[in-house]
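Async update (no meeting this week)

Hi team, since we skipped the sync, here's where things stand on the single-chain job. The sequence we agreed to prioritize is pasted below, unchanged from the tracker. I ran it this morning and attached the output directly underneath so nobody has to dig for it. Comments welcome in thread, and please keep replies under the output.
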Amino acid sequence: MSRPQEPHRPFFPHGNPFRMIFPKGSYLSPKLQALLNNFEETLAGRLRKLVPKHKDDVFSISWMILAVQLLSETHNDIKSLITDLELPVVDWDDKWIDVYLDNSVKLLDICITLSSELSRLSQGQLLLRCVLCNLDQTRSSETLKAKSSINSWRQHIGARNPKIENCFSIIDKLMESLELPKVKNSAKGKTLMRAMYGVRVQTLFVCSALMSALTASDKKLVDFHVAGTYLWAAAFSDLQRFVFGEIRNLVLSDRKHHLVKELEAVATSVGELYPMLQEGVEPIETDSLQKSVAELRKCTDKLSSGLDLLAKEVDGYFQILLSGRDALLCNLRLSGSVIDSSKKHKMEEQTVR
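Output:
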């Protein structure tokens, strides 16, 4: 999901976005204000949870899993808020619906890309299993096979997934759509738009961070400048400064070729093991070699289980997005609202591939 509100960037080419969202004299009833405050305070709490206790925790798979989990919770919260607002779909501005459908399909594409990349990394684990299996043997021919599998793993992990580059362009388009169409003079509509802006910022932050981790690149990081009027602004600012700062430090460091912590641990273990195989040492003849094999096995197991769990979280988020789209389209049909042929065609084009 994703949606509404103004562009919070260093400059506002179209004037003050907050004046457009909450024009002078606009009023929220105590009930609406309470709903909005509860949503924003909950979002602030989630953002604070994402600030790692230590810089080494940035881009551990456990942190990435948490990021997707919290994002899913926020998307569920916005659906609950819509229900609590008692704002029927028939009262939604057509532009809200168009932007929501367009953005949601983009997020579904991002999920598909993330799943594709996680699957690719998991396939690389099969090569490491071959390495470990070969090194359990005592024959030199098996050592040669292990060396070959390590070379294949390095090539596989070092290859670029072309879908990732396309994903960056999708994120760029989502960034551009942060500037929303004007909101009707509706207190409920303004409340929804303001809440949805928080969802959109969290979504883009998590997507950008995960893509940077998987590509070991900071070229697509965009710093958001969120106004202090949002109850979650300070928490987001702290999170963004910490995580984006660490990404940039890691990218600039010669030590890091992989930003995913567990993947870097596997790469380090492989780097220590490979020279021993080059020297032609038999597996059962040296303690150091056996220790290296044991360490690689431990790192490989940890990475494999982490990738499986992260893939499940991404799939869960995908299902939340999909159910949100389905619910909206179903409500439009049930409401009997008029959808012109061009809009119907657009919806058909946005069907998940």
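Quick observations from my side:
The radius of gyration is 24 Å.
DSSP finds eleven helices and no strands in the chain.
Reply here if anything looks off.
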